[in-house]
Design goal:
This protein has 148 residues and is of the alpha+beta class. The chain is built from four helices and seven strands; from the N terminus they run βααβββαβαββ. The protein has a single domain (5-147), classed as Aminopeptidase (3-Layer(aba) Sandwich), CATH 3.40.630.30. The longest helix is centred in the middle third of the chain and has 16 residues, at 89-104.
């Protein structure tokens, strides 16, 4: 199913709406609060927060960085509001982001991490072509990568 997904800047006009996005209770352990992510992005200038829109409806949030230290793109956050999960918005948002990275041509690798018990995210990432690197983050999350 193809949707019209757009990745837009988080601005003073939409940041309160982004903060109000929520996942299901059982997903709390997998996803940082958007408020915390936006604070982190305000301190770490390499972090790029994006609001995910389906047409004009805010459905999710993601955040990435261009990281010279490991010569790749890093996707730090991806969440779809509980009202819009299961509709393909997360997959399409990640696909759009991957296309943006391919056009930019700054790095050849994309990294993303997840908790080992987050099977829904793992399935999504693997469907898009990410593979397990065998490495873990400092928080013991599994690191997956993709060559572009």
């Amino acid at each position: 199913m193809i949707h019209i997904i757009k990745l837009k800047r988080v601005t003073r006009d939409n940041y309160l709406q982004v903060i109000k996005l929520k996942v299901h209770r059982e997903q709390f352990k997998f996803v940082a609060k958007n408020k915390d992510s936006l604070v982190e992005a305000s301190v770490k200038k390499e972090y790029v927060p994006k609001a995910i829109y389906y047409n004009k409806i805010l459905v999710g949030f993601l955040m990435f960085a261009r990281n010279d230290s490991y010569n790749g793109y890093a996707i730090h956050r991806l969440m779809i509001d509980k009202k819009y999960q299961g509709l393909g918005y997360g997959k399409e948002a990640l696909s759009k982001l991957i296309e943006l990275f391919k056009k930019e041509k700054k790095y050849n690798d994309i990294y993303i991490s997840l908790m080992g018990t987050n099977m829904v995210a793992r399935k999504l990432y693997e469907e898009l072509g990410f593979i397990n690197t065998g490495d873990l983050t400092d928080n013991c999350e599994i690191i997956l990568s993709m060559k572009i």
